[in-house]
Automatic annotation (TrEMBL):
InterPro entries: FTHF_cligase (IPR002698), FTHF_cligase-like_sf (IPR024185), NagB/RpiA_transferase-like (IPR037171)
A Pfam family the protein falls into: 5-FTHF_cyc-lig
Residues the record lists as binding ATP: R15, Q16, H17, L18, R19, R145, M146, G147, M148, G149, G150, G151, Y152, Y153
PANTHER family reported for this sequence: 5-FORMYLTETRAHYDROFOLATE CYCLO-LIGASE, ATPASE INHIBITOR/5-FORMYLTETRAHYDROFOLATE CYCLO-LIGASE
Protein's GO biological process: folic acid-containing compound biosynthetic process; tetrahydrofolate interconversion
Lineage: Bacteria, Pseudomonadati, Pseudomonadota, Gammaproteobacteria, Oceanospirillales
Binding site for substrate: L61, E66
Name of the protein in question: 5-formyltetrahydrofolate cyclo-ligase
Reaction(s) the record says it catalyses: (6S)-5-formyl-5,6,7,8-tetrahydrofolate + ATP = (6R)-5,10-methenyltetrahydrofolate + ADP + phosphate
Amino acid sequence: MPDQQPLSPSQRQQRQHLRRQLRQQRRQLTAGQRRRAARRAAPALINALQHRPANHIALYLANDGELDLIPALSHLRLRRSSTYLPWLDPLRRGHLRFRLWQPHHPMQPNQYGIAEPARARRARALWALDVILLPAVAFDRAGYRMGMGGGYYDRTLADLKRRPRQPMLLAVGYDFQCVERGVLPLAPWDQPVDGIVTAGSE
């Protein structure tokens, strides 16, 4: 990833406008449109994985209209995968850790109202995951992603640079969240991903 200069005021405004616009568009999808996109996410995900191992997968629970990945877990290739959810690291403020999760595990809301595993389930080191599926508000095919603005994933993923083993990083969203290269102003803290997984809602 090339060195990025600090964002100018106009670039910050452009990011905020794009984030607001795409979040609103995402929220306006009907329940039927979300279900259709969730069904289409499985083949898109398998195609993006190609031949990479997927025994340990970190994902997210859909929030704020995000693309739901849970139906994709029923795909034959992923049925035996161990899945992990992010939770706010109490020891490193602004960072995430990933806890083992299954649908029957009890959940509780974090400070943002997002569900996390309620009990101290076993956590897996970031570098020991095979795949990390990242929610995104916007992304492009060059591998740049913009999240919700809290910076949790970017700070967490920055730690991977010092590790010889790297999980595959895939940004996930609806087709309309993929923007042309150059539309998304890049911030110095943005961490690149290895690929994208998109699904249409129509």
